[in-house]
Design a protein that fits this description.
By secondary structure, the protein is an alpha/beta fold. The protein has ten helices and 26 strands. Helix 1 runs parallel beside helix 7, helix 4 packs parallel to helix 5 and helix 8 runs parallel beside helix 10. The protein is globular, with a radius of gyration of 23 Å. Bound molecules: flavin-adenine dinucleotide.
Amino acid sequence: MASTNIPTPPSVVVVGANLAGGTVARSLRTRGYEGHITLIGAEETPPYERPALSKQVLSGAQEPGELVLPVDWADLSVDLVLGTRVDEIRPAESTVVLSTGTQLAAGAVVLCTGGRGRRLGVEGEHLEGIHAVRTIEDSLALRSELVAGARVVVVGAGFIGAEVAATAMGLGCEVTVFEHAPIPLARSLGPVWGPFVLQEHTRRGAHLRLGTGVHRFLGDDRVREVEIGGGDRIPADVVVVGVGIEPATELAEGAGLAVAGGIHVDRRAATANPGVFAVGDATLQPGWRNRGVTRLESFQNAQEQADVAAAAILGQELPARDVPWFWSDQFEHNIQIAGTLDASDDIVVRGDRDGREFSAFHVRDGLVRGVFAINRGRDVRAAMRLISGDVVVDSEALADPDTDLRRLARPARAGSS
Ligand SMILES: Cc1cc2nc3c(=O)[nH]c(=O)nc-3n(C[C@H](O)[C@H](O)[C@H](O)COP(=O)(O)OP(=O)(O)OC[C@H]3O[C@@H](n4cnc5c(N)ncnc54)[C@H](O)[C@@H]3O)c2cc1C
């Protein structure tokens, strides 16, 4: 691997031992780093994958132990310190301070601190029976209450809210979803596909209340009712709040780094301090192809940006970033999106929209800019090549299920690099 003359730090402390942190540590070793790596996490579980927490773990189809990354940390010579917080980073002294009071040498620090569930800030939010879904413990606590017939109120129709609602319905619960915005899943799917996804919930009996905020929760030893605008009250046995996350920026902020909207990093995952990097849900970074800035909460981002940080720390050539990609599973449907989904794009559908087995390509000026696919993941990888290769496409060919999308991508790839 090509490397620059940046001196390699003698030690790296990775703060936050989950997907981003675990991947940074592993990537450093894969890239040949021989210095000391300490991976410190506040949770008690070794790095694990969260996506199943709102899906298979919640439904009981998977157990938490199955989510743990299959990595032997000792074998990689990574000191894994669990159940411990980092309280302060001191880049000027090349140290970090743990909650135990211990100070550790840190030639470089990588902040992989993720985020915590945003709170609504309304009365009664502390009541028993009100849940968030971020950790294994959260998912297990909710799972124990999702019994058939339970009246479940989901606050927030984002991906996690939609997944929890689908899982709860699968378990026989009666589900109501409140969304403050007029359109569900608007931020990630836009006005066409957001409502399309939630249609499946209502078709199966969920109540969807758009443009409706929650004013307070009422109850005794636990939540009993949810009060919405106009004073209406809805009975609730269980409430799930899924209204996004607050990026965990406090360590960066304490070190004087920019944190508005997430820890600010450049395309090298570097902050303004040469000894401090940041990766994953906690970061605000340049968008794909340097378009604007963005904070991505996705599995793909945590993994890719982690490898970028490892390369940057070692002064190696940065790996290329792929087209942003995300998936979700709701009911028996697998949903995948890549690129950008602008409502003003031309939309070319391939497959059976009514049968919920199709890909919708968002096309502008003959170029595919994004894809929304439901139960048609096989199209998505090829679509990502079309997007990244700036391939001019023929809409008819794109719509034809007999067209091999990989072949469409080929000529331009050859000419584009
Ligand atoms: C329920 C759920 C379902 C999801 N489903 C999908 C999906 O289907 N598809 C998809 O692409 N993505 C999904 N995601 C998103 C994906 O899981 C996240 O983007 C990914 O986990 C981000 O990894 P991270 O390491 O940046 O942050 P996190 O996973 O949040 O990890 C951060 C870790 O840092 C620790 N930490 C924070 N501060 C400190 C400190 N001071 N000291 C020590 N440790 C600290 C935290 O305890 C935490 O363990 C889902 C997320 C959730 C919660």
